Amino acid sequence: MEKFTTVTGIALPLRRSNVDTDQIIPAVYLKRVTKTGFEDALFARWRADPDFVLNNPAYEGARVLVAGADFGTGSSREHAVWALRDYGFDVVLSPRFGDIFRGNSGKQGLLAGQISEADAQRLWDIIEACPGVELTVDLVSRTARVGGLTVPFEIDDYTRWRLLEGLDDIGLTLRDEARIAEFESHREPWRPRTLPARQVRL
Amino acid sequence: MTDAPLLEERPRTLAEKVWDKHLVAKGEDGTPDLIYIDLHLVHEVTSPQAFDGLRLAGRPLRRPDLTIATEDHNTPTLAIDRPIADLTSRTQIETLRRNCEEFGIRLHSLGDIEQGIVHVVGPQLGLTQPGITVVCGDSHTSTHGAFGAMALGIGTSEVEHVMATQTLPLTPFKTMAITVDGTLRPGVTAKDIILAVIAKIGTGGGQGYVLEYRGSAIRALSMEGRMTICNMSIEAGARAGMVAPDAITYDYLQGRAHAPEGQDWLDAVGYWDTLATDDGAVFDAEVLLDADTLEPFVTWGTNPGQGVSLSDTVPDPSGIIDANERSAAERALEYMDLAAGTPMKEIRVDTVFLGSCTNSRVEDLRAAANIIQGHSLAPGVRMLVVPGSARVRIEAEAEGLDKIFIDFGAEWRFAGCSMCLGMNPDQLAPGERCASTSNRNFEGRQGKGGRTHLVSPLVAAATAIRGTLSSPWDLVQDGDE
C-alpha cells in the first residue's frame, strides 16, 4: 500500500444518506475474480440517470467524495471500496460510515473520514457553488480544506498510522506469530473443527 | 494480557467474555487487540481475491481445519445438475473449487447434501457453537450470534488476513442491550421483532456496537427465531448481534455432526454456562421493546429501517423533520411507487419470496406451509420457496412441505441465496413488487428496478393467499380459518 499524507483533487458532492454498498456496486458486478477493473460498476444503477452527479463533466477526475450519513452500509462487499478506488477516489468524507465499509477502506488505502452533518452541508454548498473546485485532505492534521473553509475529520489513530506508513495488516500480525501459536496451544479440545468431516447423526 | 485477571473480576457482558477469551494480544497505544478466530466460513463471492493474495505473498492457509466453504450466492435454484449457464458465475464457482482443492479446504458444492447458504450450513453442521468467534466474508455472518458466538461479517482483505493468521486485529466494540419483554401474539414472529428494532434505532443506530438481545420474548424464541433476529443486526449497522446460550441452544446443538460429544460435551456446556452477561454488567446503551403490543411489521421504503406495522399506512415524508431523512423518504417512495397515506394492506404484490439466510430454515418453511395449506395462490402472483440448504430441502420434503407449496401454486426450488440478491437467475423484473422474507429492501437488491417489502414468513404466506400485503390475522377476518 502506498503512503498517504495529503490529497488535493476535485471534490464530488453526493447529497444522499444511506448509500448502501448495493448502490455503490450492484451485486451483478461481484462475479469477477480479480481485484481491479470495477470503475464502470461504481454507482452503476444511478449512473444510468444522466442527471446523476457523477455524470456532470465538471466533476470529472474527482478524487474526494463528500457523502451523506450512513455511507457504505449493508453488504460487506469490499468491491465497493475497489470500485471507488478504481474510479479514482482517494477519500470519502461522510458523517457516518457502515463499520465494515470503513474497515475495508483502511485496508485498501481509501481514507474514510468522518465529518459532522453541518460540515457536510457546508462542503456541499461550497462545492456546488463552484463545481470542479479542488479540496485538500490532510491526514496528518486530520483536516479537509476547500475555499476558505477548513473542517476537521475523524479517523481512528491506528488506521491513520497504517495509512500514513502504507503498512500491510497481515505482515504486521505475522510479527506476532509466536503469540498466535502460543494461544493455539491452549485452545480447548472441544472447540469446533471442520476437518475431519463428521457424519450427521440426526 | 497483563490485565486479564482484572477483566475476570468485574461483571462482564456476554460479548466481553467471548472477546476476552479470544485475546491473543492486547493492543497498546491505540492499536487494536488481536483476536483469535475459531471458525472461518467461506463462499465464492468474497474469497477469490483473498486466495490470490495468499498466493502472491507465498503464504499458506494457517488452519484448514477451522475453515469450511460452500457455494450459495451465484448458484441457480433450478436444474442444478446442469452447468451454470452464466459464464462469470460459473467461473467464480469453479475458482472456489480450485482454491479449496489447492489449499485443502472442505467444500460443500452444489449437489452435496450440506450445500446451501453459508449461514444455514454452519449451524446445521453443529460447527456454530456458543462462545466461539466466527467470521465470513458476508455481512449476515451476524446470524451465528444466536448461539452466543461473536460472529462478524468481514471484507475480503480480512478474509485473507484470517486465512493467513487465523486472527483479526479488532478494536473493542461498544455493547447495546436490546431487551424484548412480554409475549408475542400468535402471528407475530422474530422477524417482526427485528424489523421493529431496526425501525426504532435506525440503520445507523447500531454502528460500533455488538447488540445483545435479551428479555423474556427472546428467551422464548427457538434457535431459528434467534438466528433471524441476529441475522439482521447488520441492518441496524451493528458489528454483531448475540443471544446468551441456554437449554434451547444446547438442545439444538446436541447430536449435530460437529457438536462436542461425551466428556467434551460436558466440558463445553460447563464453559457455555458461564457466558451469560453477569448481573451488574454495564451496557453502553439500552433499548426496550414491548413484545405484547408488537404487530406484524413490514417495510415501505428502500432501507430496512423504513418500516411500519402492517396495519399502518405509508408515512408522509413531509412530517419528517430531518432534511436528509425527509429527502431519503421522498426518494424511497418514488422508487417504491407508493403514495403517502396508502394503507400498507392495500399494496398489491407480484412476487412472494420465501427464503434467504434470514428465513429459510425448516421452521420458517413449516410456519408458512401451515398458513397456506388448503388455500391457493392469489391470481397473478408468483411464489418462490427456496430452502436454505439441501438438507433443509430434504427435511421439508420428508414432512411433505414441498407438496403443500406445490399444491398451493408455489415454485419449490433448490437451496441458495436465490432472490435475496441479484446475483443468480432468480431476480425481480424492473417495477416488480415483492413481499420478501429476506433482509434488504435496497434499490435494485432483488433485481434492477425491483421493489422489495421485507416481511416475516407468516406475512409472506398470507400475502401469497390474498395478493396484497397481509398477515394471518387478515385470514381470520376473511373467515378462512
Descriptive notes:
The complex is a heterodimer of chains A (202) and B (481). By secondary structure, chain A is of the alpha/beta class. Chain A has 8 helices and 7 strands. Chain A has helices at residues 21-24, 44-47, 79-87, 99-107, 117-129, 157-165, 169-174, 177-184, and strands at residues 6-14, 64-67, 91-94, 111-114, 134-138, 143-146, 149-152. In chain A, strands 4-3-2-1-5-6-7 form a 7-stranded mixed beta sheet. In chain A, helix 4 (99-107) links the parallel strand 3 (91-94) and strand 4. By secondary structure, chain B is of the alpha/beta class. In chain B, the strands form 5 sheets. Chain B has a 5-stranded parallel beta sheet, with helices on both faces. In chain B, a hairpin with a 7-residue loop joins strand 13 and strand 14 (307-309). In chain B, helix 3 packs across helix 6 (156-165) and helix 13 (362-372) runs parallel beside helix 16. Chain B is globular, with a radius of gyration of 22 Å. The N and C termini of chain B lie far apart (61 Å). Residues 1-5 of chain B have low confidence and may be disordered. The chains are: A alpha/beta (202), B alpha/beta (481). The interface between A and B is large, with 68 and 89 residues. Chain A: Residues 1-115 form the Aconitase A/isopropylmalate dehydratase small subunit swivel domain.
